[in-house]
Amino acid sequence: MITEETKKRIGALCSTPVGLGGWLGLPYEEDGCLKFAMKFFTELGIETTPEAMKEARNFAKVEKPQFGDIAVFHGPEFIGSGFHIGVMLNYRICIQCNPGTNGVGKVDISRPLWSSSFKGFYRHKDLCS
Q1: How far is CA 87 from CA 91, 126, in A?
Q2: Which residue, 33, 64, 65, 106, could crosslink 69 as a Cys pair with Cβ 3.0–4.6 Å?
C-alpha cells in the first residue's frame, strides 16, 4: 500500500525537472524504460528487477490502473525489441523514459501512438490492497 506522503513525494519528483532535483528530463540510456521503472519502484520501497518486470514476475494484470502500476506497450515505434513500459501516475498519465520524449517524460496513454501500442496494466504484488 502506498501512503499519501510517499505518493506526494514521488509525484513531486515526477513533476520537477532534473535540473531542479526531479526526474523530468533525465537522459535516455539503453534499456532506459526499465532502468527508470526500477528507480520509481526503489523510491516506493519495492524491490524488483528488469527481468521480473519483463516477465511480469510478482505482477498481476489489472484492468484499471492506479498510481504505481506498470503500463506495457509493444510496437515498431519503440526502440530495440519493440517492448516499452511506463509507470502510471493516474488513470491515463504515465511517466516513462524513451528517446522520443528525450529521456524521462510524462505521456498521455490515450493519445494515438500510445493507445495503439498499449498491451496492458500490471500491478506489483506489494501494491495490491
Answers
A1: 11, 15
A2: 65
Residues 107, 123: Cα–Cα separation, whole Å:
19
Helices (H) and strands (E) in the chain, counts: 4, 6
Query: Range of 64's domain?
Result: 4-127
Can you tell me which residue has the cell 528525450?
102
Distances in Å between the alpha carbon of 72 and those of 3, 9, 53, 56, 122?
Answer: 24, 24, 10, 10, 8
For position 91, which CATH number holds?
Answer: 3.90.1720.10
Report the pLDDT value the prediction gives residue 98, as an integer from 0 to 100: 87
Q: What is the pLDDT of residue 81?
A: 62
Which H/E stretch holds residue 88? strand 83-88
Structural domains of the chain, count: 1
What stretches in the chain show pLDDT beneath 50? Answer: none
Residue 14 main-chain phi, psi, to 5 deg: -75, -15
